[in-house]
Amino acid sequence: MSDSKTLYTAHVLVTGGREGAARSSDGRLDVKLSTPGTSGAGTNPEQLFAAGWSACFEGAMAIAAKARGVDLPDALAIDAQVELRLGEDGYALAARLDVHVPGLDADIARQIIEAAHRTCPYSKAVKGNIDTVVALV
Q1: What are the boundaries of the region Disordered (predicted)?
Q2: Same domain, 30 and 88
């Protein structure tokens, strides 16, 4: 990747871990963190990952659709689920994206989803690293 050009760098400072806070250098992100399954008032890394991946994936879908001359519906939605798992080898993540593309032909929607999954930076990052499912629903 030495020939790649950095387009953006996110800088977030986390203090206190899962019971702390996260704040971006520009102040746009400023959230409390809580451990999943507790009564804490904050979000958790799994929710943040789900939001980040699904937003990025929708952007990759828009690029794939444009390349095919297809307009995506305004009602497009991605239901992202990120699981925190504990097994014999420790903690791991698993993720699922259920992609809703109402009004678009299913074959065309699948082609766009497959193209997005090949090009989305989050999809590339998780490929082969965690259990993932990306499905048209």
Answers
A1: 19-40
A2: no
